[in-house]
């Protein structure tokens, strides 16, 4: 069974996209969200993500948000789709979100403009109680991909 395609449609009045970052040494680069009550997931660990602008595709949105929040200027062919979800945001908006993976990231080259960068192994991420449920699912998908050969 294939995953549904979510984006703007008759139900989803809002859309967002995000990117999970993975370093060459098998660590995740995630975002510890600011602890502000007026944002989604305050004080939690998430992928770098944000809302779509009118006319943006999921890839366009993910690449724009990635550049805005980390300084990474990736191309569409650099990111790999991890999955899509449908949820109601904390403001009550039906939102479609699409997530991608970017590998080979050098965390020393990032310029974080929102929240705080968090570097975690895949195992540390799964065990961290600050990881959002959506991020936990994404991390499990990355783990299942077996991107790194045994040492």
UniProtKB/TrEMBL annotation:
Cofactor(s) for this UniProt protein: Mg(2+)
Keywords: Hydrolase
PROSITE patterns for this protein: NUDIX, NUDIX_BOX
UniProt key word Hydrolase: yes
Domain Nudix hydrolase: from-to ranges: 12-151
SUPFAM superfamilies hit by this protein: Nudix
Pfam families, sorted: NUDIX
Domain of life: Bacteria
Designated name of the protein: NUDIX domain-containing protein
Organism phylogeny: Bacteria, Pseudomonadati, Pseudomonadota, Alphaproteobacteria, Rhodospirillales
């Amino acid at each position: 069974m294939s995953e549904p395609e979510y984006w703007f449609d008759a139900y989803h009045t809002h859309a967002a996209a995000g990117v999970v970052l993975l370093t060459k040494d098998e660590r995740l680069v995630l975002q510890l969200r600011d602890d502000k009550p007026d944002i989604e997931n305050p004080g939690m660990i998430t992928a770098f993500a944000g809302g779509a602008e009118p006319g943006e595709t999921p890839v366009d949105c993910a690449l724009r948000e990635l550049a805005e929040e980390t300084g990474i200027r990736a191309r569409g062919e650099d990111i790999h789709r991890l999955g899509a979800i449908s949820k109601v945001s904390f403001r009550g908006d039906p939102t479609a979100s699409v997530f991608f993976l970017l590998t080979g990231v050098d965390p020393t080259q990032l310029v974080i403009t929102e929240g705080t960068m968090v570097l975690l192994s895949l195992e540390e991420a799964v065990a961290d109680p600050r990881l959002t449920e959506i991020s936990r699912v994404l991390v499990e998908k990355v783990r299942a991909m077996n991107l790194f050969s045994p040492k």
